[in-house]
Amino acid sequence: MFNKPPGREFLKMMTDVPNEGLIHFRGFFYRDRLLLTDPKALAEVLVTKTYDYEKPSRVRNFLRNVLGDGLIIVEGDEHRFQRKHIMPVFSFRHIKDLYPSFWSKAIALTQGLAAEISETPTYSSNDKAQVSGVIEINHWANKVTMDIIGLAGLGREFNALKNSDDELIKTYEEILEPSNEKVLYFTLNILLGTQIVKLLPWRQNKRMRVTTSKLREICRQLVRDKRELIKRHDAEQIDILSILIKSNDFSDDQLVDQLLTFLAAGHETTSSAFTWTAHMLAIHPDIQSRLRAEVHQHVPSPSASSSSPTIDLASILESLPLLNAVCNETLRMYPTVPVTIRDSIRPTSILGHPVPTHTQVLLVPWATNRSPHLWGDRADEFVPERWIDFDAAAGQRPEDGRPNNHGGSSSNYNILTFLHGPRSCIGQGFAKAELRALVAAFVGCYEWGMADPDEVVVPSGVVTTKPAHGMRWVIFLDLSDLEKVRVLTRNRLRLSHLGTSW
Fold first, then answer.
1. In this structure, what DSSP letter does residue 309 have?
2. Mean pLDDT over residues 154-174, rounded?
3. Is 150 exposed, middle or buried (CB count within 10 Å of its CB: 0-12, 13-18, 19+)?
């Protein structure tokens, strides 16, 4: 559990230990554990026998504090009920309608970064007429994804991008901070149980009580406000919370649980994915340049894309080969949740091998997604082209090909970022659409690189994968845009006047 990156040891085991789909070993307290390495084994656990397994009770008891009894935590019949009634809000058509919201917040992110750079710019000594500034991007990523889930999930403006002291952001950042103390706290809760850990004279216990109580009260107020708004206005609202309230399938307490899940999973996962995607582009500047050219060629302009009803932003972004390839390859290499565990709740079998009750089964996206047995010799390399169908022999460029959904792999079970089957991530379409918009807007507006080119960024985190020490980039801004920012800020005008063209 203390390995950085999480899942690294399982990848080594999967690569080095001869096996036929299962690796048996002993875990804590000499407990039987099974590591799944084969697509057929994964299919059995995730699809054909999915309800033979549940998340460990101690994991659920701990995560319940942050996520509530939402779709991620509940099991059995309650899970079936929730998934059935929540699924419609994540339909393809509904996500397509949300693209303008994703795009407007993505552009707001680029404007916020420009404003921060303008405060202490470093002037370039070359002929590019540029300035630069160092940005801690992970904090900005948290803010923009919280704004997106606020608008698309609740129909509410959190304005986290404009408010540096947003209470919701600060609370989640404290809970999810990838520190060694947080990892130890999580580990002890899993090994000893929350009832025992609560008895320890540990500051983390108090902070967890304070922060999780604050989150639940914020969500309860959000539900009250939305119900009142729906009573006053009969106009059609497409945000997730409005649709769930109008379905009359959930009580207020259940809606609070769903909100806790949406807010945590909806902003933290895409925040992590965006940070890692832009990191890969920072250390692969050639791919960054090619992607920028693709965006400039096919996306008309920041302002036109969000305001014109004739522009089908969803179709444009979903058809761009390199954009989708870069996003998919990052999701492969940096799955937001690197390790997940299931406990068998009844006697069952995997690949014909008996599996007794209480056996722990490990699903390790970090290892499966990087396994050379499943992805070839370049499994550990960033190769976006694997997600594009193009004829290299005929001289066709990847940018002129067509995006694919398999990455050249022989089975869809070879990538576990969103899992599969009834327990797969219900919001994966939402997350991918949001990521496309963020990456396209960001690469269209900026060039960037690592603030310290020699820094080795270490993936870490308690539940999700985040940079252990944050992520600092140097971002370049044209002098003309810098002057615009200063004039707009001096006159307290909206920064929407900035970035009206590429």
1. T
2. 80
3. buried
Q: Specify the pTM.
A: 0.90
Instruction: List, in order, residues 6 or more apart from 386 with CB less than 8 Å away.
Output: 325, 329, 407, 408
Half-sphere exposure of 123 (CA within 13 A, CB side): 5
- Paired tokens of 284: 């692969």
User: Strands of 122-123's sheet, edge to edge?
Assistant: 122-123, 130-136, 472-478, 447-450
- Residue located via tokens 């994966």: 428
Rounded Cα gap, residues 82 and 256, in angstroms: 13
- Asked whether the CA dihedral 222, 223, 228, 229 is positive or negative, the reply is positive
Residue 350 is predicted with a pLDDT of 97
Q: How confident is the model at residue 307 (pLDDT cuts 50, 70, 90)?
A: low
Q: Token digits for 478?
A: 């044209």
With b meaning 16 or more CB within 10 Å and e meaning fewer, what string describes 454-491? eeebebbbbbbbbbeeebbbbbbbbeebbebbeebeee
Q: Which amino acid is at 256?
A: V
3-state secondary structure (DSSP) of residue 461: coil
CA angle 438, 443, 448 (to 5 degrees): 115
Three-class SS string for 386-434?
HHEECCHHHCCCHHHCEECCCCCCCCHHHCCCCCCHHHCCCCHHHHHHH
Contacts of residue 234, defined as CB under 8 A and 6 or more positions apart, other chains included, come to none
Calculate mean pLDDT across residues 54-63: 91
